[in-house]
Design brief:
Layout: H1 3-14, E1 19-22, H2 26-33, H3 44-53, E2 57-60, H4 63-68, E3 72-75, H5 90-103, E4 111-114, H6 122-135, E5 144-147, H7 157-162, E6 167-170, H8 174-188, E7 194-197, H9 199-227, H10 235-243, H11 264-277, H12 283-307, E8 314-318, H13 333-343, E9 347-351, H14 356-363, E10 368-371, H15 374-377, E11 383-386, H16 391-394, E12 408-412, E13 425-429
Parallel strand pairs: 1-2, 3-4, 4-5, 6-7, 8-9, 8-11, 9-10, 11-12, 12-13
Helix pairs in contact: 1-3, 5-6, 9-11, 9-12, 11-12
The structure holds uridine-5'-diphosphate-glucuronic acid.
Uridine-5'-diphosphate-glucuronic acid binds near residues 117, 213, 253 and 323.
């Protein structure tokens, strides 16, 4: 019942499917049972409340009985990044073992469908093998195997799940493909595009999709970095123009501090590792990753140039969530920046509309101060850095900034401020000279 699992469970339950939402964390299961979402996601709690009350969503820790009552078992456990950048499959192995053990006493023919993002080959070589060896049963005879990658985004997960742009069904078993197609048709009707393929291509589709989007962001960040050095250049006008070419498209062309979150950094890095394992050097993906890692240095270079030594400087960070409409700070560039500023012995004032608590739990209180309103967060600031694209920040005006020091430096990493600042401030926007 993590991000993908809980959203899937709640939206399927909303579509009148009976869903057992299994998690090994008792607290989480009981939190969901009392209609609470364990993390913030627009609309999700509302859907949980309705589906738990209607009895369609049944949160539980009982994997065995849930599997025995289910026609399809979606595997949605996390596949985090290891310190060396490769994919940690521990949770996948653990849950596959548990499913295998549970399958011993199951007489029906369930389909085990992998939704977690896994390196190509994992579904057949690890998951299927573990289920077979632990259950003593055979894929294709006693149970089916499928891989259906997930494309939902944090911040719009519920609407993405309600109306996906695409369903991918990966399975080498025609019977499984038919059953999964029928299941998704029942939920989404005939309008939603569906692609049927084998499991390895389905696994690759997810890596290709996220790597392409990440590359698009690193591409526009490259153009932004060029713009930084040319008088009069403006990355947003360029993105608008090239995005009008239908072959390019205007989405994911917003230059910024670099992509974060639990998916792009991990998936690009995991894919690079996978490519190397199969003897291919993925230069393009390595460049995507490198450009992304380097964005933070561009902010630090500006800081060093404009403020000199950062020791005891008061720096306000607006936004620690990796993007707007979420309280998720995983792989957030903003968090990485705060850690660097802390090392340089600056005093850091943080504001975020949603992620303040998660930030405090991660960063602690040494040299870091937390504020729930923007004006207090920027009080006496030597520098304000806008990091997350929260709508609230688009409404900032000169009055909101009135408590900052004179000659305060403003670094707008996402070009959020839309008004002409008075000469009291020094304003630098990434992607504009
Ligand atoms: C991403 C994908 O968009 C989803 O399709 C996918 O299902 C998901 O990963 C996943 O693999 O589970 P998500 O991580 O929720 O979704 O967030 P995105 O909206 O893709 O944003 C990722 C990062 O890129 C954020 O830090 C965002 O600020 C940044 N970004 C995005 C840009 O800097 N510029 C853009 O134009 C778009």
């Amino acid at each position: 019942m993590g991000f993908v699992g809980l959203t899937t469970a709640a939206v399927f339950a909303e579509k009148k499917i009976t869903v057992y939402g299994v998690d090994n964390d008792k607290n989480k299961a009981s939190q969901i049972a009392s209609s609470k979402a364990p993390f913030f996601e627009p609309d999700l709690e509302h859907v949980i409340r309705r589906t738990v009350n209607s009895g369609k969503l049944i949160p539980t820790t009982d994997l065995l009985s849930s599997i025995s009552k289910s026609e399809i078992v979606f595997v949605c456990v996390g596949t985090p990044m290891k310190p060396d950048g490769s994919v940690n499959l521990d949770y996948i192995k653990k849950v596959s073992t548990q499913i295998g053990q549970a399958m011993k006493s199951v007489s029906a023919y369930p389909i085990i469908c992998v939704k977690s993002t896994v390196p190509p080959g994992t579904t057949e070589r690890i998951i299927t093998k573990l289920i077979q060896s632990k259950s003593g049963k055979t894929a294709g005879q006693h149970f089916g195997i499928a891989m259906t990658p997930e494309f939902l985004r944090e911040g719009s997960a519920v609407s993405d799940m309600r109306t996906p742009h695409l369903i991918v069904i990966g399975s080498s078993d025609e019977n499984v493909q038919e059953r999964m197609s029928a299941f998704f048709r029942k939920i989404y009707g005939t309008q939603t595009k569906m692609i049927t393929t084998n499991t390895i291509s389905a696994e690759l589709i997810k890596y290709a999709n996220n790597s392409f989007l990440a590359t698009k962001i690193s591409f526009i960040n490259t153009i932004a970095n060029v713009c930084n050095r040319i008088a009069g250049a403006d990355v947003d006008r360029i993105a608008d123009a090239i995005g009008s070419d239908p072959r390019i498209g205007n989405l994911f062309l917003k230059a910024g501090p670099g992509y974060g979150g639990s998916c792009f950094p991990k998936d690009v890095s995991g894919f690079i590792h996978y490519c190397k394992q199969i003897g291919y050097d993925p230069v393009l993906l390595k460049a995507t990753d490198l450009v992304n890692r380097n964005q933070i240095n561009i902010i630090l270079e500006i800081l060093n140039k404009e403020l000199g030594k950062l020791e005891d400087k008061s720096i306000s960070i607006l936004g620690t969530a990796f993007k707007k409409d979420t309280d998720d700070i995983r792989e957030s560039v903003s968090i990485k920046l705060v850690n660097k500023l802390k090392k340089a012995r600056a005093n850091i004032h943080i504001h975020d509309p949603m992620a303040l608590e998660n930030t405090r739990l991660t960063l602690g209180n040494n040299r870091i101060y937390y504020f729930s309103d923007i004006s207090s967060a920027i009080n006496s600031a030597d520098c304000i850095i806008l990091m997350t694209d929260w709508d609230e920040y688009k409404r900032i005006n000169e009055k909101t900034l009135s408590m900052a020091k004179d000659a305060c430096l403003i670094i707008d990493t996402r070009r959020i401020l839309k008004f002409n600042l008075s000469a009291r401030f020094r304003y630098i926007a990434l992607g504009r000279s």
